[in-house]
Automatic annotation (TrEMBL), chains A, B:
<keyword id="KW-0808">Transferase</keyword>
<dbReference type="InterPro" id="IPR015421">
    <property type="entry name" value="PyrdxlP-dep_Trfase_major"/>
</dbReference>
<dbReference type="GO" id="GO:0008793">
    <property type="term" value="F:aromatic-amino-acid transaminase activity"/>
</dbReference>
<dbReference type="GO" id="GO:0006571">
    <property type="term" value="P:tyrosine biosynthetic process"/>
</dbReference>
<dbReference type="Pfam" id="PF00155">
    <property type="entry name" value="Aminotran_1_2"/>
</dbReference>
<comment type="similarity">
    <text>Belongs to the class-I pyridoxal-phosphate-dependent aminotransferase family.</text>
</comment>
<dbReference type="GO" id="GO:0047536">
    <property type="term" value="F:2-aminoadipate transaminase activity"/>
</dbReference>
<dbReference type="GO" id="GO:0030170">
    <property type="term" value="F:pyridoxal phosphate binding"/>
</dbReference>
<dbReference type="GO" id="GO:0019878">
    <property type="term" value="P:lysine biosynthetic process via aminoadipic acid"/>
</dbReference>
<protein>
    <recommendedName>
        <fullName>aromatic-amino-acid transaminase</fullName>
        <ecNumber>2.6.1.57</ecNumber>
    </recommendedName>
</protein>
<keyword id="KW-0663">Pyridoxal phosphate</keyword>
<dbReference type="GO" id="GO:0009074">
    <property type="term" value="P:aromatic amino acid family catabolic process"/>
</dbReference>
<feature type="domain" description="Aminotransferase class I/classII large">
    <location>
        <begin position="103"/>
        <end position="444"/>
    </location>
</feature>
<dbReference type="InterPro" id="IPR015424">
    <property type="entry name" value="PyrdxlP-dep_Trfase"/>
</dbReference>
<dbReference type="GO" id="GO:0005737">
    <property type="term" value="C:cytoplasm"/>
</dbReference>
<dbReference type="InterPro" id="IPR050859">
    <property type="entry name" value="Class-I_PLP-dep_aminotransf"/>
</dbReference>
<keyword id="KW-0032">Aminotransferase</keyword>
């Protein structure tokens, strides 16, 4: 079997990307490591003036038999001791560490080799990449990687596609740059391929076509929905037909779980006897379908290791990654050297299998939290036809969908405006001591231009409002308490008897 | 004495800044820490799932009696042991650490409080801020902070002012964004205030005025020049007269040194008996002159602790910093939590005095390296009138200025084009085993629009070319060796007998 090369998609690049010149200093920085050259070329401080040495940090040890939340004792049995020296050590048997003398220096704008090689192997293990010239690039997390995506591809006035409700910071970043976000209808299973196709088939021929679709396929923020493999294949086909890129923003990818089972007696958490079984259970990604470098995947450690690492990676064709790299050289330069040394030091000690063990453990924890949240919602919320709960199969979020017209004062106090009901419920809920956030915070506002086909305008009832909650941020007892407070508030607001 | 508030400079903001909406999720993230609220609001993973605890790192201990380059032994006498726990510890006498449970979490887009308070105190100690509502904001280093500056203030087509030769990555970032960089003449003492004023007095009335001046006042990159206090005061007055902001990019500020003294017997390194003396010896900064919030100062740890910390800070008025913060919330979010925990953990143990001791030690090292470089230049370079050396009093860079027309083949092989001579010398130098970089790499190209007054076009001889070298990146023996190779190459190129 011959493996194909990616296509040339450089015609999607922004004016900024096209105008960007590589820094000439970056073209000679490799001479810093050339033994035949005395490097008087760039302002690189000598590492002897970096004040740090002997970085040590502890983590639990794979396969994490007590669960990933268990604190290690510090003993060899359950504790992974990560030690990163300032200077390169080459003793046999040692793990692939990034010495501080290198990670704290300039250079390596693609990321440190020891970090990239781990992430590259991980990516191929999970996604089984289908074209030859793919690669990975270190990022400062997905917020930054998304903003870079906009800069790499979009000019002011360009249009992109996104789920009708999406992560507000992502939408706002686009809007501030003058990029029109065209909303695509979604249901409880995510983006609706038929609606997407209809939008593009009926695209205003006077208007430029969208450059890409921005999607959060797994545990979508805010709806909690996840795209099926089948929908992904359909969407990829539409992207080929109408020639746009797909940006998959996947911070929640590894928070996939069993389908929710309301009957606790029938609830059995999936167990994986091997990591291969776990990998096989995962949803197909857009990048795994991709045969031509049409997909850019934004991956992050924020939800699986910790947001403050400000470390993630992009998977895509080398051509596209080069454009990101040139942008990075003028923005973040590279992610923090401490972050790279610590994350690579930990992951290279855990190994690929150990990291998958961690992710399996994480799946277990979130499965339990999701179950607790949905159980509590069924227990504490009014069981009324105007309140609807869709148990998620991935991610951190659940939604409580409400028919605002069921509010006793809908037509009077709230003048039949569902957003006013939403705001009133939000205020009531917060004053009841629980924070869930209103759906309107996530609504893409870029609806008017270019004109949408009428049929896609209202896929759901216009009086439908929703609140996004998360089971991620608090322990199980507080979670139940929070949902109870939410339920009490809704009983009161809608005047339903308990 | 009443302390003034800053002026409102929001009319300089870019369209993007004006269009930027705060993320509504950021408005409620503080409720995460509210004990009366069950936080189901945002996708914050619980810190029990962060795999790290017991971060430890070693640094030398103030007052660094063996010099800042000496490796600590690990003993209590000469080693500062930084330990950062996952969870908050509140034992009396402990330093102000940022626990990993917080630094690795979302939130604190201005920076972690323990980091900011150190930097705030340091800033006031050094610059003695003159207006009331100033503050500091954590950044991912000056490359990122500069790019953010462009986004905060500039629209496509705007003009800014910069030194005629400046850091190429800074210039290229502006150019890629469609921002015209108007070059201002500089000499061996930096920007020439009279030329700056002349440019603005003669500004094309049809063209929009520049929004700001971008300057590297200390150890300017690439020329190595440093602005005197007097020139800074003049430039600030011109900025007030013509109403533009001043962006001072100051990575080399603490690499100030004694004036170069060629006669080694008369060379005495300045010693400071107190840190106050050291602070008093420093050049006045633009921010220290500023009475109205007209200056934005970009400060960095890259040159004083290590580039890979990707950590710095901006000093400016709260109004302006708010615009950066809103941009950061959609880009970097915040600098790496590991970087903040380690840097704050180290600096809060060293204390303000200890950090100044470090900076005094650094000054000593760079003074010695500068002396070695300039000594070697005088020793090894052809002593000809067409080669000119300006010993720097700050920073990492020296320049070798050459009259290209002195090249024996100037009019023949090189067709009287100094850039061709520059390129030929560059290639010769690299093939001789030393890297110095040609001045043209740093030349601002935005000269044509709007028209410059004729007098500012050629402040120096058009046949003058230069090469930038650094004494930062290599130890003293290699430095001498490199300069010797450079000298040999120049002897050969110019056919001068030794």
């Amino acid at each position: 079997m011959t493996v194909m090369e990616s296509k040339d998609f450089s015609y999607f690049f922004s004016d900024e990307t096209n105008a960007r010149k590589p820094s000439p200093l970056k073209t000679c920085i490799h001479l810093f490591h050339d033994p035949n050259i005395v490097f008087l070329g760039g302002g690189l401080p000598m590492s002897k003036y970096f004040p740090w040495d002997n970085l040590q940090i502890e983590s639990p040890l794979p396969p994490f038999p007590k669960g990933i939340g268990a604190s290690p004792s510090g003993s060899k049995e359950d504790t992974c001791h990560v030690t990163v020296k300032k200077n390169e050590t080459t003793k046999a048997g040692e793990t692939n560490d990034i010495p501080l003398s290198r990670s704290l220096q300039y250079g390596f704008s693609q990321g440190q080799p020891e970090f990239l090689s781990f992430v590259r192997e991980h990516t191929d293990k999970i996604h089984k990449m289908q074209y030859a010239d793919w690669d990975v690039l270190a990022t400062a997390g997905n917020t930054s990687a998304w903003e870079s995506t906009l800069r790499v591809f979009c000019n002011r006035g360009d249009t992109i596609l996104a789920e009708r409700f999406s992560f507000s910071a992502s939408l706002y970043a686009a809007e501030a740059q003058g990029v029109n976000v065209f909303p695509v209808p979604l249901d409880e299973h995510g983006l609706i391929p038929e609606k997407l196709e209809e939008i593009l088939d009926n695209w205003n021929p006077e208007a430029a076509k969208p450059k890409f679709l921005y999607t959060i396929p797994t545990g979508q923020n805010p709806t909690g929905s996840s795209l099926s493999d089948d929908r992904k294949t359909q969407i990829y086909r539409i992207a080929q037909k109408h020639d746009f890129l797909i940006i998959e923003d996947e911070p929640y990818y590894f928070l996939q779980m069993d389908a929710y089972e309301q009957d606790k007696s029938r609830r059995v958490q999936k167990n994986f006897s091997t990591t291969e079984e776990f990998v096989a259970s995962m949803a197909k990604s857009f990048i795994s379908i991709d045969t031509e470098g049409r997909v850019v995947r934004l991956d992050s450690f924020s939800k699986v290791l910790g947001p403050g690492t400000r470390l993630g990676w992009i998977v895509g064709s080398k051509q596209i990654l080069d454009a990101y790299k040139m942008l990075h050289e003028m923005t973040i330069q590279n992610p923090s050297g401490f972050s790279q040394s610590i994350v690579a030091g930990t992951l290279n000690r855990w190994g690929q299998e150990g990291f998958l063990d961690w992710l399996i453990g994480l799946r277990r924890e979130y499965n339990e939290k999701r179950d607790a949240a949905i159980d509590a919602l069924y227990e504490y919320l009014p069981r009324s036809s105007f309140i609807n709960i869709n148990p998620p199969i991935a991610g951190m979020f659940f939604t409580v969908n409400i028919d605002a017209s069921a509010h006793p004062e809908f037509a009077t106090t709230y003048k039949s405006d569902p957003e006013l009901v939403e705001q009133a419920i939000y205020e009531k809920v917060v004053s009841s001591g629980v924070l869930v956030v209103p759906g309107k915070w996530f609504k893409s506002e870029g609806e008017t231009q270019p004109p949408q086909p009428a049929s896609s305008k209202a896929v759901s009832d216009p009086n439908n409002i929703f609140f996004r909650g998360t089971y991620a941020a608090v322990p199980l007892d507080k979670l139940r308490d929070g949902v109870r407070r939410l339920g009490d508030a809704l009983y009161e607001v809608f005047g339903v008897a308990k």
